[in-house]
Each structure stands twice: as structure tokens, then as C-alpha cells.
Amino acid sequence: MVTARQIAQLCGVSVATVSRVFNRPATVSAATREHVERVARDLDFSPNEAARALSRQRSTMVGLVWDTDHRRHSWRHPFLQDLLLGLKSALSSRGYHLLMLATSDDSGSRNPGASLADPVAYVSMTRRHHLAGLVLIDSGTDAEAFSAFAHSGLPCVALDVALSGPRATYVTSDNASGAADAVRHLAALGHRRIATITGPHGNVPAAARTDGYLRGLAEAELPFREDLVVTGDFYRESGFAEMRRLLARADPPTAVFAASDEMAVGALLAARAAGCRVPDDVAVVGFDDIEVASLVDPALTTVAQDKRGFGTAAAGALLSMLDSDEVPEPVRLPTKLVVRDSCGSQR
Amino acid sequence: MVTARQIAQLCGVSVATVSRVFNRPATVSAATREHVERVARDLDFSPNEAARALSRQRSTMVGLVWDTDHRRHSWRHPFLQDLLLGLKSALSSRGYHLLMLATSDDSGSRNPGASLADPVAYVSMTRRHHLAGLVLIDSGTDAEAFSAFAHSGLPCVALDVALSGPRATYVTSDNASGAADAVRHLAALGHRRIATITGPHGNVPAAARTDGYLRGLAEAELPFREDLVVTGDFYRESGFAEMRRLLARADPPTAVFAASDEMAVGALLAARAAGCRVPDDVAVVGFDDIEVASLVDPALTTVAQDKRGFGTAAAGALLSMLDSDEVPEPVRLPTKLVVRDSCGSQR
DNA sequence: CTGAAAGCGCTTACAG
DNA sequence: CTGAAAGCGCTTACAG
Fold it and tell me: Is A54's CB within 8 Å of B51's CB?
């Protein structure tokens, strides 16, 4: 590998000058700068990252904290691929790379009480690698553990969980508006008994979607009925179970807003199992717009999140913290109601 | 951050000894080893990775080459999340981390002729970070570009593409057997005119699945008919288009083996659009067992790949190359036929 | 605008 | 078994 020293010798300058050409080009005379740049390009030189990180005490890597060994064994992010895509392309435009952090705990056994694989190990990992910043993906119950990161002073941006700290912010969808849109849409179709299957307690997006449900109801001038709010956990099985219970009631709802597509799919299956037609007997609307939404039968009407935008926004917030000391405001991504067949408005 | 020097001073030994305790514990006397270990643990010391990488000329990171800015804008891996999960947990058990490589090209514009974002840039990235090895995810057309990596001498393991080089190997599913299983299953159900919608030309798994189709036919003593083999590209649209054409024929097939679930879903939609009932009028079997397979209507019979096993096997192959000079044989993961409704055997 | 020098925190022959 | 020393390849005050 060609080193700065070699470039320096070839150009008849010191390594310090070569370094300056790459780090503070303005402080180098145009002539020598161009000379160094040309030679460096010809020899395909680029500074060794390990050496650079060592001397600057900061690498060009951003850590990704993604807890994969969660108690909920089947935990899956609804749109990890898009997220990574967005993160990667936004980060790479500024020369940063994503390091998927893993602790030895990830490999297997763990004491089942812990919510995130040893946050201390992650924080130490972070220092060892001189990471420039951290992106935190919430798996639903890591919120508390995340504060260890937020308080480490490192630039942090969390996804879908409110994070605060000296250099921490977060990005989330405008969950309340999205949910309100869904409910208003159902109300406009004539539904008066609109139930909701919420996400788990303590989850930020879940709470916001429930708020949005209430707001949508109020905006449509529909009364709030406590018994129409049932609690799920974002996963399909809970959607199935809660829907079954709702349909077994004496006065079942005529429409259901599920706070995730997974639950909405579960609800669809429960309706089918109960011999209940969707949307004729009961309308269903979901949230997320994951791939299956358009494939289930009937195709699911849902509130789409800007999946790739999540990654882009997270990267943007992180990058801005890397250049300045200002902490960006939390980002709230707009959502979009995607009308398909399960709500009945297409008939 | 606590450094080896501090530990050394506290223990009254040299930094060299501290280093040895962590790297060649056998060369240190039991007494001093234990002393150093205890102090290090108490102070939560762990060696700085940048310094270590610099002096050893090798980091504890494994690069992930995942081309996200492909010409095929909508390129998606069918099970990236499971793959990453498997990779991460297997790698972390040995202290390695995954670095998602990105070149500046990833951010946007690229000359449309290139099949992988500047492989040269990736290779240089690899050296700059002193990566220990590389995992290559094929997006279907990167095979050629991958050889640049394979010949760099760095330990490489590719997924779903045959890679050879001084220290390169690959992992793939046993695509031929899986396809043969699917075809034999259809034949056992009485089908005699079994068509296949293949993957794209030049793609390794696609070719193997076509081979398996032929083998299955032969094993069921069914004649091969060239006109029953049509070419898709693994994506839904091609499945839709090819299925439509197949069904429009004078003597349409009674069963179709699609070389991917995405295409099988497309085929299902085409059948529905053509007023053709599945499985009554035509049976469909897919390949992959992605999440939607169980959700489409009718639920898709398919050949399941060991998604997480891909990651685990890739990590295993890489790790073994990291400790020894032997190059592991290519890994061929077993597949499993998952019988649901679209093949008609459940009736 | 540029160079010499110190320093980032490890690892590893080389002596002893 | 252990230490002193050189070296990994950069960056950055400090002089000039």
C-alpha cells in the first residue's frame, strides 16, 4: 500500500504537507497542492484509516446498534433493508461507513432480564473503535438502555424512540397524523364504530398512533369509546387474537385501525377465520406499508412510512452533529395514506 | 479511556507484557498474567482497535460488499435481515464486526455501464481499513466484478455466486435438489406438463434451479419439452409476464415451477388476472420461502432456503480462513420443500 | 506556506 | 519470562 511518506518523497515535500493537502487544503499553496494531488491520484493513495483514527482520535465510522438477540426471538424490523439503504447512501456521500456493532453476547446465551445486550460493552466498543457517532435502532424495549449511549456524549440518533442527551436526537414518522388520516378516512366512509388495535405500552410510535386515533375520532366528531381500544404488540399473532375478540362481541366494530401492518394482516386472517368478509363486514386499515400489504387479500389499505427517508434523515442528523455542536431537532417524517381494498372505499 | 500503559504502570510491568497477556497469554507467567488481567478488568480496559489495527496491519472488522446503487433500482435481497443476523452473531462470537462498505458512488450518480460501484474503490477501502476479510452479497450481476476481490488475496466469501481465488469460497443453497424436489412433488400430484420460469441467465442459483427442474423431470420419467422453459429475472413482474404468456398458449402447462417466490407471486397474480384458478387450473410452486409466501392467496408451496444459515455459514467459512491458510470447500445448504396450498396437494 | 518533531496506543522481533 | 525500542501511518501544534 502506498503511504503518505512515499507521496511526500516523490513530491519533495514533507508528510505534514501531504497530510494538509487532504485535511486542510486551504493552508497549502496551490502549486504544491496540485502537485501532491496529482501524484496521490496517480498512485491511488488514500490515507490509512487506522492511522488516521489513531492520531485524530476519531474514525470515519458510524456504529449501528441493532439488537438481534432480543428476548423476542422473532424480532424483525419492518423495513430494515430500506433503512440501511438510506443510511448507507447518505453516510457514504460524506465518507462515513456503517459498523454493525456486536458484542460477544450476541452469539448466544444471555441473561434473560437484560433488554439490550450489555450496553456497557457497546459503549466500550464505541470508544475502542473511535466511532464518530451512533445510530440506534429500537426493537421496542431498548429505550431505557439507549440512554446509556445518549449520555456517553457521542453523537447519537435513534430511530422511533425519543432520545435525549447532550448530543442526541431521533427520527420518527408523524405517527399521530398518519393514524388520524386513517381514522378520518374510515369515518368518511360512514363508519361509526371504529376500533383500534394498538402497539405495545411504552413504545413511542405506538402511543403516537393511539393519539392519532383519538384525534381522528374527534375530528370526525365521533365519540371515543374505551372498549374500542385494545392492545397488541405490533406482531401478527396479537392482531389475530385481538381481532378475534373484537368480532366475537355483541356489537363488533365495523372498522378496525391496526397500528401495524403485521397486526392488520393478523386481523385479516382472524376475520377470514371468523367467516367475516373484509371490507364488507368489517373494514381494516394498517400502518407501515410493508411489502405484504399489497399482496394480502384483500389488499391492505395502510399508512405508508417513508422507509428510506428514515435512513436518510438519520444520517443527515448525525452528519450535522459531526460538523457542528448544535443538536438537530427531532425529525418527524410525513406519512401517506395508501388506499387499497381492505377499507372498502374502492367498491 | 484507559490505556495499556496505565495498566502497565499500575501492575509494575511493561506495556509489552500487558500486550502479551492479551495476545499470547501462554508466554506470560501465571502470576503476572493474573495480576494484569485483574487490573485490566477492574479498569474496564480493552485495547484500542485503531492502534491495534495499525500495528498488526489487520483489523477485527469484516467488510460487507452490498451493492445498493445497482442499475436495477429496486434491487432487494430476499432475506437480507436474516442473513445479517446470522453473519453478525457468528462473527461476534469471535470478536469480529461487520463494516458495511460504501463508496462515494453509492450516494448517487454513477455511470450506468458499471455493474458494481467501482470495485477498485472497494478494494482500496478494504486496504485502508485493514479489513480481515470480505463477505460479498451478489445482486445478480456482480459476479464479474467480484473477481477483483477474490484476486486481491484477502479472505473472501461470496453468497450465491461461485467465487474462486487464492483465499475465496462461497455459500449457496442446494438449488438443484430443491428444484428437483419441487418438480417431483408436482409430478407425484399427477402433473405431466410442468413448466418453469427460470431466473436470469448467468446467475448461478438460477442455472442450478433449472438443472434441478430437468433432474426432477427425469426422475419422474417425464419428457423434457423446451417450450416449457421460459426465462424470468427473479422479480415479480417477469413472473407475471411469463405466466400470462404460458396461460395464453393452446396447451398451457398444468403446473409451474417458478425459480423464486417473487416470480411465483407474479404468476399467481397473472393466473388470477387470466381467470385461472390456482391450484385447480394450474399449480404453482416457488423458491425461497420469503415472508409473503404464506400470506398470498392461495398460500404458496415453495422451496425454503436456510436464510439465517447463509449468514452463519458465510461467517464460518470466513473465520476458518482467518485462522488457517486452508480454503474451505464451497458450502451447499440444504433446502426444504414447504407444502402449502398453491400446489394443490392439500385438497 | 512549510518542515521537524511529538504523539496517537498498540505489537513484535530482539536481547537478556 | 520480561523489558527497551522500533515501528505501524497518520495528524497537529509549534517554529520559522
Answer: yes
Stretches where chain A sits below pLDDT 70 are 68-75, 102-118, 139-144, 346-347
Using CA atoms in the order A47, A48, A53, A54, what is the torsion angle rounded to 10 degrees?
Answer: -120
User: What was the pLDDT predicted at A14?
Assistant: 92
Q: What is the phi-psi region of residue A118: left when phi exceeds 0, alpha when psi lies from -120 to 50, beta otherwise?
A: left
- How many CB atoms are closer than 10 A to CB B30? 8
Domains of chain A by range and CATH? 4-47 (1.10.260), 61-174+308-333 (3.40.50.2300), 175-305 (3.40.50.2300)
From residue B57, give the alpha-carbon distance in Å to each of A49, A95, B52, B126, B129.
11, 21, 8, 12, 9
Angle between helices B49-56 and A49-56 (to 10 degrees): 140
Q: Give the protein-side footprint of strand C (Cβ within 7 Å).
A: A 12-17, 20, 26-29, 31-33, 51, 54-55, 57; B 1, 3-5, 15-16, 18-20, 22-24, 45, 47-48, 51-52, 54-56
Overall average pLDDT of the B3-9 stretch: 92
Chain segment B308-330, per-residue pLDDT in tens: 999 999 999 999 998 888 899 99
Expressed in angstroms, the distance from the first to the final Cα of chain B is: 66
User: Is the Cβ of B129 closer than 8 Å to some Cβ of chain A?
Assistant: yes
Strand residues in A94-243 grouped as ranges (E) = 97-100, 133-137, 156-159, 168-173, 194-198, 229-231
Give the pairing of strands B301-304 and B336-338. Answer: antiparallel
Which residues of chain B neighbour A124 with C-beta distances below 8 Å? 44, 46
Distance in Å from C1's C1' to A21's CA comes to 12
pLDDT reported for residue A296? 86
Span B282-287, average pLDDT: 98
Q: Which nucleotide lies nearest residue B23, CA to C1'?
A: C11
**Neighboring chain A residues of B108 at a CB cutoff of 8 Å:** 89, 93
Asked if B268 reaches chain A (Cβ–Cβ under 8 Å), the answer is no
Does B76 touch chain A if contact means CB atoms closer than 8 Å?
A: yes
